[in-house]
């Protein structure tokens, strides 16, 4: 049976991807920091305040929903900014399942720098972003790719962001984003292109997926905190449906190695009729 590993799967886009793949018959390894509901940590996006409000969602809840679909769920706690934690996650997958068929790099660093303007952004924020968006995916892919190739191929998907290449429409916290977040997302983009160039001939399918503005639990809270409304956002399940199509449809072959605008593809292919 096919297996998939999704980081950042306690809520939002990662959870939606995990559930969509479970619906398609995949067993899921789900990873994040939040294992149980109600766990408290600082979720602030700026240096100007702390935010200890627990966020909705947990790995335990995602795993339960995967199992309710008749699939196996493996909980793999992981902090993407901690290399030892990332390496331990890879070992857990290899020891338990012998590897996976699909890796979805969705997890990200949450902390100061995401919504801080340039002069307020601490240098440590850039380091954290780079660890989570570049180094962690590299560690995981290096560890899991050999077994994947030995089985004849697999897939790697990176959830990217237009923040990596777009000019912000406004300052951070006023409709835009911080430079640290943009740098972090940009640092994760090249992995897919390199993997495509080097391993497409060995059965590896790779995509960057740009989800656009999505109505995740975290975005709903953040938008409200900044006095804005969540208008025109896609449901996370639409992104999940798009990733599932990319992984399983032969029609996606022409998109291999590219960056996909998920919402455009979802609408064009009518992958999520309820949206």
From TrEMBL:
GO molecular function: oxidoreductase activity
Family: Belongs to the short-chain dehydrogenases/reductases (SDR) family.
Pfam entry (one): adh_short
Keywords: Oxidoreductase
A single Gene Ontology CC term: membrane
Taxon lineage: Bacteria, Bacillati, Actinomycetota, Actinomycetes, Frankiales
Protein's UniProt name: Short-chain alcohol dehydrogenase
